[in-house]
Each structure stands twice: as C-alpha cells, then as structure tokens.
C-alpha cells in the first residue's frame, strides 16, 4: 500500500464518528444533562448557604434560595438543604424571619406539601419552617393568607411521628381555632405535659373564642390537673397554676373548674405548693358570681375561701405575677 494513501478508519463499537459521518454524537447528551444539572444546582445551593453563613439574610439571597424550592429538576435533597437552612435562620433571628416572610419562599409551601407527600424529611422540614414563621405576629398574618390548614390538618395524624409532631406544632403556631382544636384532640398524646399546659394557657389569653379550646378539651384539662398534682416537677405545677389563672377569666371555663372534683384536686395541690401565686379567680368573681345560680356561686365562694386560707396559713403575701411563658413549637 502506498505510504501516501490514508488507511481506512476502524469501526468503533461505541460511536459512529468517522470522516464521512455527520458531526453529531452517537448518544443523547440530554440523558446526562438533567442529572448533571441537578448536581450543579445542589453545589450552587450549598455554596450560597456557606457563603452567607454568619451574615444577615438578604432579600436577594432569600429570593435565590426560594428558586431551589420551586424550580423543576432540583434534587429533593437540595430542597431539604434549603428548608433546613431557612428554618434555622427563622428560629434564631427575627430580622431573618421578616426577610423570609417577604420573599417567594412562602409561595413554595403548598407546592412542597402537595408534591412530596411520601418524602417524610421534606414534609417535616416544611411544617417546621411554617411553625417557626408563624411564631411572629408580623409573619403569622402572611401565613394565614396562604390557607395551609387543609394540608396541615391531615398531617397532624400522619403515620410518621416526626411529621405528625411538626404539623401539630405548625397548627398551634398558626393559631386558628377549628384546625387547632381538631389536631389537638387527635394528637395530644404527642405532646408533653408541659406543652399541653403552655398551649392551653396561651390559648386562653387570646379571647373567649380561643377559650373554646379549653371547653372542648375539658377531659384533657382534668387529666392535666390530676397529673400535675402528683408531679414532682415544681416548675410544672407552677405553670399549671398560671394556666388556671388565665382560664379563670371566662365564665364558660370557670363553670367547668368550679366543679367539686376540681376543688378537691386544687386542695390536694396545696401540699406541693409553698410560694406559688394563687390569685386564681379573685379578679373575675366580683362580676361573674352574682349572675350565676346559687349552686355554682356556692362552690366558687367555697373555693375562694380555701384559697384565702392558704394565703393566710401557708403562702403569706401574694407576689405580683410574673409574665407567663409563651409556647414555642420545637423544631
């Protein structure tokens, strides 16, 4: 064969490339493009989070992070990374909370809860972020406008414990009576005794409509008092007494507590209490008792006499009440 003559190109088992073939690959590049782009987006999101660590969250950064929650072709793990980061920001900074509340992040919640019904970490982190945002009055008003309750209520009885607890905490933070009552009755076993007391007390301070939660949950209230009576945790007993002080402001609730069984339970409580504030009912009885029947009025008068006797014999002068602890859902 002449040295100047080109040898034939060997046939490749991997591609069609040759001098006579058209200039194109023999495999579809798009088959690799989407997975590779997902990895690229994950690296970008992680880089943005790392770059802004230790500095306040800016509106621009919040909008960029929001895109990783809403755009297609994003790994679920990338969305989870962003959700957890934003949840940490909101939990630790009121300023960052306001930035997130004014961003496109809020618009992603309904979509995430709808698309990832089987992705437990995303459900949990979404509910947790909703709960954290709803802890602040400014952002709570915006959260109400999203109408997430129809999606959160079913999650409050989810088979997964962590998802269920996060959904319950979100509904409690959003503070809408009907969904809250529904989830509280279904999921109260998830809550510690301390959490139940804080929830009941915080609801009672928000108006008579919210006091319905106490009325509907009077079985829970009775159980709560009974367990607190025999608790060795003095702080828990103090919280319970402060909660009773709050719910005593409403006639409909007072009539439940005025039951003879409650009076007996409160009497038993005196052996555990030395320096607690028993200013229960005294601020409201002056205008509530005269309008009641003699039976209820008699029970209330008896209870007040018991409390005054405790004051004289054991407690001495009553101190001015401390500000009651607010309930904040855990992460």
TrEMBL record:
Residues 9-20 have a biased composition (Polar residues). It comes from the Eukaryota. InterPro entries: ARM-like (IPR011989), ARM-type_fold (IPR016024). Residues 1-20 are annotated as: Disordered. This is Uncharacterized protein. It comes from Mycena metata.
């Amino acid at each position: 064969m002449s040295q100047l003559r080109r040898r034939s190109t060997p046939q490749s088992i991997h591609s069609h490339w040759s001098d006579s073939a058209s200039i194109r690959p023999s495999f579809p590049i798009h088959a690799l493009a989407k997975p590779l782009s997902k990895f690229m987006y994950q690296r970008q999101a992680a880089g943005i989070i790392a770059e802004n660590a230790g500095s306040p969250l800016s509106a621009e950064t919040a909008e960029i992070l929001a895109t990783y929650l809403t755009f297609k072709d994003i790994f679920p793990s990338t969305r989870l990374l962003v959700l957890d980061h934003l949840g940490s920001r909101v939990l630790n900074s009121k300023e960052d909370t306001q930035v997130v509340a004014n961003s496109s992040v809020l618009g992603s919640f309904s979509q995430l809860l709808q698309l990832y019904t089987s992705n437990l970490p995303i459900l949990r982190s979404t509910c947790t972020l909703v709960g954290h945002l709803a802890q602040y009055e400014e952002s709570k008003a915006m959260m109400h406008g999203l109408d997430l309750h129809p999606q959160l209520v079913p999650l409050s009885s989810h088979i997964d414990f962590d998802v269920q607890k996060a959904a319950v905490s979100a509904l409690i933070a959003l503070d809408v009576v009907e969904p809250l009552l529904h989830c509280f009755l279904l999921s109260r076993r998830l809550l510690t005794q301390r959490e139940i007391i804080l929830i009941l007390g915080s609801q009672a301070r928000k108006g008579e409509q919210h006091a319905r939660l106490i009325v509907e949950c009077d079985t829970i209230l009775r159980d709560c008092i009974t367990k607190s009576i025999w608790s060795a945790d003095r702080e828990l007993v103090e919280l319970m007494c402060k909660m009773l002080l709050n719910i005593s402001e409403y006639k409909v609730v007072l009539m439940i507590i005025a039951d003879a069984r409650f009076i007996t339970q409160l009497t038993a409580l005196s052996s555990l209490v030395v320096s607690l504030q028993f200013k229960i009912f005294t601020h409201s009885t002056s205008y509530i008792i005269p309008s009641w029947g003699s039976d209820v009025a008699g029970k209330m008068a008896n209870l007040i006499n018991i409390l005054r006797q405790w004051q004289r014999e054991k407690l001495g002068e009553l101190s001015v009440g401390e500000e009651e602890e607010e309930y904040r859902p855990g992460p």
